[in-house]
Amino acid sequence: MNLGSAEEELRCLHEELTAAPDPEALFQASSKMARVVSEYFPPEQATAFIEATVESMLSASPTCATAAGLWMKVILKECGDAMLDKVPAIVDIIYSHMATIQEGSLRQFLLEAVSILAHHHLEAVISSLLSNHLPMDRQHVPSLRWCQHSSRAKLCRSCSQSCFLFSCSRSAEPQDKRCLCQG
Questions:
Q1: Angle CA(78)–CA(17)–CA(12) in degrees, nearest 5?
Q2: Residue 134: its pLDDT value, please?
Q3: What is the pLDDT of residues 78-118, one digit of tens each?
């Protein structure tokens, strides 16, 4: 790897960070720095990076927490295509921290991170989210049953509610799709 130009760019961005007159300038320089780093980011370190970033959002000052959220978004935007095998772990990390992060703008970073990841790997993100216990309207779906083998979910268009349909390729009738709100 030829890091010469990247190193020089990072030095300039470091100077911008230290001389930033206001938080907005700091965030712009930090985002630019994340883009430079993303060119050399190893996808196998994605889960460790996301975990460290989310942890720093919890323990850092508001300015540093925002910068960490920006880094997470940039890395996912720029490198998300190469993270398919890391999607379940990344979604689990983000999901597990949603309850502990109460600050609205920081929670927004987590939601945007899932959205960015879904842009790259929609089916994997949906499958990962559905494997977690999501809060649901218990009056509508008293006991949601989800097939462990299924990786596809669709909103039910046959009823007026937001129900999930499932189709299990390992079931006795693989073409059977039924609305879970029907029982």
A1: 75
A2: 56
A3: 999 999 999 999 999 999 998 888 888 889 999 999 999 99
The strand pairing partners of 178, in sequence order, are 166
> How would you classify the pairing of strands 154-155 and 178-179?
unpaired
Distance CA(11)–CA(28), nearest Å, equals: 15
Virtual torsion, Cα 111, 152, 149, 132, nearest 10 deg: 20
Helices within 20-121 (DSSP H only): 23-38, 46-59, 62-79, 87-98, 104-120
What is the chain's Cα-based Rg? Answer: 20
Residue type, 168: C
CA angle 171–89–130, rounded 5-degree value: 40
∠ CA 151-157-159 to the nearest 5 degrees? 115
Instruction: Give the start-end residues of each E strand in 137-183.
Output: 154-155, 164-166, 178-179
| Residue 146 neighbours by CB under 8 Å, 6+ apart | 130, 131, 153, 164, 166
